[in-house]
């Protein structure tokens, strides 16, 4: 199985379109197809912060739900938007406000369409994706080996938010343990969530959130080639959003 796992898009539709072209896909009627039969997989956080979250949602819905030519796992931003669309009282900050502004600017019928499409995409997709034929697990913020196969509340929190301690840094960001440093499994675990300047390889894990929405790049990890393909961001640089590791 040949796959291209794509990092956090966060509404950066132009970069996503450019990445698919660089990966060798042809866009037919809005759906990317590859002559080698490659399968795209999204690590989550499709909306928020970037300029075209709703366009990204429609694009991924067509690919994953309607044409069943790709996979997607939700991130914490997807989870929050899903709860918003269900009518829950969620705080419109940390990027959700940008997606809601796009949504509320639409005519009523278009609002209903994007709401139903996103809810269907979210409900259609697993919390994390296990693909034995690619020796791969895709999870938004990562997953420990002992959690694979489980679906309890602790796993939900870990997969959506990472290995959080409950404490916060001075800049307000949550303190997260470096779970990847202790990973000893044989399967690839590919994730995003934490923006890094370049894909971070640690044991058999790779973080491919290269901070496109913060002026970095949008990246994909290809298997079985074990290659990274990236396109530069068109968004303003926000240096303080990137995390560094003592590797």
TrEMBL record:
Family: Belongs to the PrpE family.
Enzyme kind, highest EC tier: hydrolase
Positions of the Calcineurin-like phosphoesterase domain: 1-196
GO cellular component: cytoplasm
Keywords: GTP-binding, Hydrolase, Nickel, Nucleotide-binding
An MF annotation (GO) of this entry: nickel cation binding
Cofactor section: Ni(2+)
Domain of life: Bacteria
Physiological role: Asymmetrically hydrolyzes Ap4p to yield AMP and ATP.
Pfam short name (any one): Metallophos
NCBIfam families per the UniProt record, alphabetical: PRK13625.1
Entry's EC annotation: 3.6.1.17
Organism: Pontibacillus yanchengensis Y32
Designated name of the protein: Bis(5'-nucleosyl)-tetraphosphatase PrpE [asymmetrical]
Catalytic activity from the UniProt record: P(1),P(4)-bis(5'-guanosyl) tetraphosphate + H2O = GMP + GTP + 2 H(+)
Keyword rRNA-binding set for record: no
Tagged with keyword Transferase: no
């Amino acid at each position: 199985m040949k796959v291209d796992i794509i990092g956090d898009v966060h509404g950066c539709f132009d970069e996503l379109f450019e990445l698919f072209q660089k990966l060798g896909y042809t866009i037919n009627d809005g759906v990317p197809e590859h002559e080698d039969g490659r399968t795209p997989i999204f690590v989550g956080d499709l909306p928020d912060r970037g300029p075209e979250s709703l366009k990204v949602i429609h694009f991924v819905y067509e690919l994953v739900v309607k044409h069943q030519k790709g996979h997607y796992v939700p991130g914490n931003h997807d989870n929050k938007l899903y709860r918003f669309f269900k009518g829950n009282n969620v705080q419109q900050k940390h990027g959700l406000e940008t997606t809601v502004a796009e949504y509320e600017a639409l005519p009523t019928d278009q609002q209903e369409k994007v709401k139903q499409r996103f809810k269907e995409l979210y409900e259609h997709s697993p919390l994390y994706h296990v693909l034995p034929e690619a020796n791969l697990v895709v999870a938004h913020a990562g997953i420990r080996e002992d959690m694979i196969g489980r679906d309890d509340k602790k796993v939900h929190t870990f997969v959506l938010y990472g290995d959080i301690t409950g404490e916060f840094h001075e800049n307000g960001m949550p303190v997260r343990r470096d779970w990847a440093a202790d990973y000893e499994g044989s399967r690839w675990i590919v994730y995003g969530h934490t923006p890094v300047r370049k894909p971070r390889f640690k044991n058999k894990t790779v973080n491919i959130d290269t901070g496109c929405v913060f002026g970095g790049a949008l990246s994909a990890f290809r298997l079985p080639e074990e290659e990274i393909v990236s396109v530069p961001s068109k968004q303003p640089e926000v240096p303080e959003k990137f995390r560094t590791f003592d590797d």
